Amino acid sequence: MKSLYITGVAGSGKTAIAMGIALKFKKEGYNVSYFKPVGNRSKFIGGEDKDAILMRELLGMDVDIKKIVPFVAGTSYLSGLKNQESALDNIQEAFRAVSLGADLVIIDGAAFTHVGAAYGLDVVSLAGLLDASVLNIIKLENDFSVDQAIFLNNYFVAKGLHMAGHIFNNVPRQLFSKTEGIFAPLLGKMGCDTLGIIPIRSEIASPTVSEYYEALGGELLTGEDRLGLLVEEVIVGAMTTDSAIKYMRRSANKAVVIGGDRADIAVAALETSTSALILTGGLYPDVKVVASAAEKGVPVILVHRDTYSTIEKMSEVSRRIRPGDTEGITIMVENIEQHCDWQKISNLLGF
After folding, report:
1. Residue 235: which domain range?
2. Do 186 and 285 lie in a common domain?
3. Same structural domain for residues 239 and 330?
4. Using CA atoms, how far apart are residues 127 and 6, in angstroms rounded to an integer?
5. What CATH number is given to the structural domain containing 250?
6. Does residue 220 sit in the same domain as residue 309?
7. pTM over 0.85, yes/no
8. H or E stretch covering 84
9. What does each of the 351 residues of the chain score in pLDDT, given as a tens digit?
10. What DSSP designation does 41 have?
């Protein structure tokens, strides 16, 4: 039995890559299981992890969700964790149950590689414990993203782990040529294998308004029936009205984050292609803004965080494929087949 630990920062698309690789191996005739040793509290609905529910269904796993996700870490998880050995024993026991009869176990990493480090539950510690190869997913934002990948690669290797390689995921159009011509060769020069460069596709890369609403909480003032709209860009409306209008006209399917008292920016946003208005500071907007948004079918979400905290939280949100989303699931597998070195991935795992 082989295992592949997929890691990366929040929003890198780890689960999407996990899904694509798992379904591709299943398509090749292998028995594949999914494991998420450290789940994220924010991804739970009714006590069950959303990603685990989806993967269990897609892979036809007859395993309890609590075995697939044996541990959950919220932002205050240390307050409730009393026994490190018990947590590690539960993870190992759950892994044995999930891997029973499997040719390959795809292990989905936590939101960040360091989550759980205080108790040896981070990616590096668990990958060693579970004897898994590591695949890092790069969320490409700028040159520092490459620095981070090289740093992680060197750290994993120094810790004695088998580093399978890296996949650049959801690469923006404007960075694709640079990724092929500069970033990937540089990784190779530094001893890091690039196993794929996947271009961004809005159908699966762009989160929906619903996913932002779930992450932010707050009050939904309008647009209950429009939460499925895609958000391709997030804009902060900290500008003059004239500047805002010019800027917003250049951006389609956007979420505009503004203070609830900025009615001028809200009205300007509603005159352009806007998927959602996100109002910060707990400030209720002018009734004219709400009425206009309702008329245009634009959801308005009122949150009680400040603008900085709201943007920070939104940066962790990524598109989530749901059961029945056949188009999204097909694209996941296509990305692995068309944009990754599938033969190399297979060979690295010994298949």
Report:
1. 208-314
2. no
3. no
4. 10
5. 3.40.1390.20
6. yes
7. no
8. helix 84-99
9. 999 999 998 888 898 999 999 999 999 999 999 999 998 765 555 567 788 888 999 999 999 999 999 988 877 777 766 666 788 899 999 999 999 999 999 999 998 899 989 889 999 999 999 999 999 999 998 999 999 999 999 999 999 999 999 999 999 889 999 999 999 999 999 999 999 999 988 777 788 899 899 889 899 999 999 998 989 888 887 666 667 677 778 778 899 999 888 888 888 889 899 999 999 999 898 899 999 999 999 999 999 999 889 998 888 787 777 767 788 889 999 999 999 999 999 999 988
10. G
